[in-house]
């Protein structure tokens, strides 16, 4: 049985005061849920504060990216070891905004995935197609390629301690959500690609949906067999929205 996971990607939003209010509003409600695992992914600068604020609750902390390098002369970068040291347990890798705005490649994302695991963090690997790719019926080939570069780099066994997030680029921050049927079809395909290498790893792999998920549309998505939770952007900045998604996932 896969434990549902709901992760909030705060992106480049928030302040110390905002983090204090949001975590205070979430702590009790999330801790009362026995099935779901909830993770908050603030910006690097807020991460130590959020890690402190969640102490004593069941909330976990994750980063939005990390360096593929372990230490040294990489100005502006943050390593997996630093993140672990500050209470981080998860690291998002390959978010479409990193791929698009910072030109992260599949190979670099594979290296970041490996770096996260080297330092004891669980990577949340994002994959997803653009609208143009969907219209050209390239969804499966794009997602297969994104997964296979990482699988080839780290090996399928590494997916025992990883999470995959299906995030159709056309649904991120646009208000357009994939229908539960569209999302389920891609989630089943992701599981199939992993199962081609190891069916047991595929069976226990948690696959999250991300893309304009909110309280009002979560139930239909979470009811699908291969959707094990959500990666939430905009709605994770509102306590009631995020809590409601966590409740629906639990
Ligand atoms: C995201 O950026 O991971 C995301 C899913 O954003 P939103 O929920 O705002 O579409």
Automatic annotation (TrEMBL):
Pathway where this protein functions: Carbohydrate degradation; glycolysis; D-glyceraldehyde 3-phosphate from glycerone phosphate: step 1/1; Carbohydrate metabolism; erythritol degradation; Carbohydrate biosynthesis; gluconeogenesis
Superkingdom, taxonomy of origin: Bacteria
GO biological process: gluconeogenesis; glyceraldehyde-3-phosphate biosynthetic process; glycerol catabolic process; glycolytic process
Binding site for substrate: 9-11, 173, 212, 233-234
Record keywords, A-Z: Cytoplasm, Gluconeogenesis, Glycolysis, Isomerase
UniProt GO MF annotations: triose-phosphate isomerase activity
GO-annotated cellular components: cytosol
Enzyme class: isomerase
Active site: 95 (electrophile), 167 (proton acceptor)
Annotated EC: 5.3.1.1
Location in or out of the cell: Cytoplasm
Annotated InterPro entries: Aldolase_TIM, TIM_sf, TrioseP_Isoase_bac/euk, Triosephosphate_isomerase, Triosephosphate_isomerase_AS
UniProt-listed SUPFAM superfamilies: Triosephosphate isomerase (TIM) (SSF51351)
Pfam family, one: TIM
Catalysis performed (reactions): D-glyceraldehyde 3-phosphate = dihydroxyacetone phosphate
PANTHER family, sorted: TRIOSEPHOSPHATE ISOMERASE (PTHR21139)
Family to which the UniProt record says this protein belongs: Belongs to the triosephosphate isomerase family.
Subunit and interaction comment: Homodimer.
Function: Involved in the gluconeogenesis. Catalyzes stereospecifically the conversion of dihydroxyacetone phosphate (DHAP) to D-glyceraldehyde-3-phosphate (G3P).
Name of the featured protein: Triosephosphate isomerase
Organism: Alkalilimnicola ehrlichii
Gene, per the UniProt record: tpiA
């Amino acid at each position: 049985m896969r434990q549902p996971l709901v992760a909030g990607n705060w992106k480049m939003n928030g302040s110390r005061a905002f983090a204090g209010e949001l975590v205070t509003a979430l702590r009790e409600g999330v801790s009362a849920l026995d099935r779901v695992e909830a993770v908050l992914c603030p910006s690097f600068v807020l991460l130590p504060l959020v890690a402190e604020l969640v102490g004593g609750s069941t909330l976990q902390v994750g980063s939005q990216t990390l360096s593929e390098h372990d230490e040294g002369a990489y100005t502006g970068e943050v390593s997996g070891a630093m993140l672990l040291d500050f209470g981080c347990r998860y690291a998002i890798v390959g978010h479409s905004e990193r791929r698009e705005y910072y030109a992260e490649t599949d190979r670099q994302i594979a290296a970041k995935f490996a770096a996260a695991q080297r330092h004891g963090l669980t990577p949340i690997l994002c994959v997803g197609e653009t609208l143009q790719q969907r219209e050209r019926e390239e969804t499966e080939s794009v997602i297969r390629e994104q997964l296979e570069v990482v699988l080839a780099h780290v090996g399928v066994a590494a997916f025992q301690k990883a999470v995959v997030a299906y995030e159709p680029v056309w649904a991120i921050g646009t208000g357009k959500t994939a229908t539960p049927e569209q999302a389920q079809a891609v989630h089943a395909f992701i599981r199939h690609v992993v199962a081609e290498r190891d069916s047991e790893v595929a069976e226990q792999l948690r696959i999250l949906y991300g893309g304009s998920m909110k309280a009002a549309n979560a139930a239909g998505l979470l009811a699908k067999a291969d959707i094990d939770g959500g990666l939430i952007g905009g709605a994770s900045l509102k306590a009631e929205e995020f809590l409601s998604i966590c409740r629906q996932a639990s």
